[in-house]
Amino acid sequence: MLEQRYRWKNKHLRMHVSVLDGTISPTILLKNATYLNQTFRKWMKAHIWIFQDRIVYVGENLPKHVENCEVIDCSDQILVPGYIEPHAHPFLLYNPHTLAEYASQFGTTTIINDNMPLVLNFEKKEAFSYLNDLQSIPTTMFWWCRFDSQTEILHEEEKFSHSNIKSWLEHESVLQGGELTGWPKLLNGDDMMLHWIQEAKRMRKRIEGHFPGASEKTLAKMMLLGADCDHEAINGEEIYTRLMQGYMVSLRHSSIRPDLPDLLDDMRRMGIDAYDRMMLNTDGATSPFYEQGVTDQLIRIAIEKGVPVMDAYNMATVNIARYYNIDYIHGNIATGRVANINFLSSIENPTPVSVLAKGRWVKRDGVKVEGAYPQFDWGPYGLKPLELNWQLSMDDLQFSMPFGIKMENSVITKPYSISIDVSSDELSTNHDESFFTMIDRKGTWRISTMLKGFTSKLQALASSFSNTGDIILIGKSKQDMLFAFNRMKEMGGGIVLVENRKIVCELPLPLAGVMSSLPIEELMLQQKTLFAELVKRGYAFNDPIYSLLFLQSTHLPYIRVTQQGMYDVINKTVLFPTIMR
């Protein structure tokens, strides 16, 4: 285990020095490179020597020997550090491996990931084995340590036990605690969460907040309790308040909150022109959002909005690395850093022509390097197709609750009084109310109510994708809901749309029923089809995947469906418990 504490062992460090001494050749030599030097805040010329996965020299000198060295004249290219995504949720139907591979083609070579799916779907030993095995891919993968499930799950004290949290915080790949979706508990006296924050601070690790709409006083309190950063600002005033209270501000541009253009306009309006305490993130966007790029898309928006070019790149590279105390190894092109380098056609175009990740080509002259990310074997981690050894029946689809859930937008839900007759097996398509059932994936409990505003014509949707991996059924027709469930069960998990006992579309999720194994480019097509079919049937919001994910999420108002039952978020009360089957 001791060897894992250091990226390079002593023998590797000696070899790196030997390259400078001329006894070993570099593996790659980048000659005449115009590159972003963030120390001098200038575009400078230099020769860059790379040995395996490390930059061993940047300067005016050339190596004495170049045997077995790839020599590249970079006179007509611009070099910048590989981009860093500081806030990824690598389970939005895609998985961490496919996200890393796809993002690398757009220059994002380091990703800091939410560990929630690993906590909920892996045993701790399997999760840490997975983290270790991910070190072999070209992308550098870091992680968060969640302190709560952001819903009301059964036996949460086991998944988020003190020993489990402590083990995660101690892991070398974990850079921060959070995000703090359970911060109201902290303010209300949860000393265990406060202790975990203290432990993270003791280990010199950061705490990521999640404070939508928080007042100045609340932000000040959370800073006193240990928060370092927040990504929930939705206007210039909220950015200003966070900066005033000492926060690092992470500017978000995601599929449910594509805010960056407006945020930058607001900053200009308010005269905020200092960017050193800011970074860019995509906050777990769903795959179609990434069609035009990942972090490079955000840099482009910043440049187009008048952010100084140097700062636009810094917000996606060295600002993030400095914040997480990893700038000695990431975020800049300098001696000793990991060889993550993007080759650009021009300063104004952040989408790279070629990409080096850990000194390996993952993209070359505009073309993806095949085999850079080998096929990943999920078998050893227990992620296999979903096996449901229970049957769903019409008895499970009984609806008698006095109120249901009304969708205000993609993710906000409120209670509403049910006034229609719900005793029949089919509902009219003249209104936007649907049957809704959530069932434990082990088949032990269920909860049934009505969902208003999701669609007006959807006959049936079955999904094993949810916050906790429990089964969601939505529709106008109970028979179609049964049919959709059985098809979802047959294919080992996924999302299925059914109409008149015929499959409209399906999206398989063979990794525990919550993630796809397909490359993101293929998943993107499936997801677009799903979205189009839902829109045809009356879905009026911008992201159905987040709608499914957040139906259980108690970090958002006002009412949620959880493993404990219908939950009032504001009053922290279970209104109707789940029913045992």
TrEMBL record:
Q: In what residue span(s) does the Amidohydrolase-related domain sit? A: 78-362
Q: What is its EC number?
A: 3.5.4.2
Start and end residues of each Adenine deaminase C-terminal domain: 411-571
Q: Does the keyword Hydrolase apply?
A: yes
Signal peptide boundaries: none
UniProt xrefs under Gene3D superfamilies? Metal-dependent hydrolases (3.20.20.140), Urease, subunit C, domain 1 (2.30.40.10)
Q: Which reaction does it catalyse?
A: adenine + H2O + H(+) = hypoxanthine + NH4(+)
PANTHER family associated with the record: ADENINE DEAMINASE YERA-RELATED, N-ACETYLGLUCOSAMINE-6-PHOSPHATE DEACETYLASE
Family designation: Belongs to the metallo-dependent hydrolases superfamily. Adenine deaminase family.
User: What is this protein identified as?
Assistant: adenine deaminase
Organism of origin is: Neobacillus paridis
High-level lineage: Bacteria, Bacillati, Bacillota, Bacilli, Bacillales
